[in-house]
Amino acid sequence: MNAIKKTKGRQKIEMKRVEHEAKREVTFSKRKKGLFNKASELCELCGAEVALILFSPHLKPFTFGHLDANEVLQRYLTRRDDHSPGPVSRNVLHQLNGVREQYNESLKRLEEEEKKSKDQKSGTSSSGGFWWDDQQIENFNELDELEQYVESMEKLKKIVQARLDEIDLSENYFANEFINDQNLLDQNNFSLIPHSNDFYGV
């Protein structure tokens, strides 16, 4: 009868620092070899380019590279530098800053135009006078612009004159109504305007 060998089988190793120095050196050597083997398999199976750098507990360096560790590391560093702002990126940033400045300037001009439009509707200008006070005739470079300005002023003059006529008509209307009412009251011995004798009770 064959003797049955009793073993604990493959046990899960607890992940913690190996305190014994000699055992720690052995563990590092085995793990390093296993890590390099896995990296080699990754390169052969997938065509990956791998670079590994390890330092032993005594700070002795070990490297693995496919095809060459230095070449892989240099390529990694170069790709990282490509992500930093280069000449192209700086040009893009400069263009973005220019667009942002143009946007802010356009927004400022829009606000000024809106304010000017409100001032024109209210009949005032930014200087406190009327909106036409802000117009500088010497700034008109074309005859058409000056003619349009004169035409606008003529239209404004007609509008103002029409408004004055309306006010005159209203005043005349109320004045005539007052006179008619006064005449009607006079006929009945009443008056809308008190006489001086009324203040003294005479």
TrEMBL record:
Record GO terms (molecular function): DNA-binding transcription factor activity, RNA polymerase II-specific; protein dimerization activity; RNA polymerase II cis-regulatory region sequence-specific DNA binding
Protein name: MADS-box domain-containing protein
SMART domains xrefs: MADS (SM00432)
Entry-linked PROSITE patterns: MADS_BOX_2
MADS-box domain boundaries: 8-68
UniProt keyword Transcription present: yes
GO CC, one annotated term: nucleus
Organism annotation: Acer saccharum (Sugar maple)
Phylogenetic placement of the source organism: Eukaryota, Viridiplantae, Streptophyta, Embryophyta, Tracheophyta
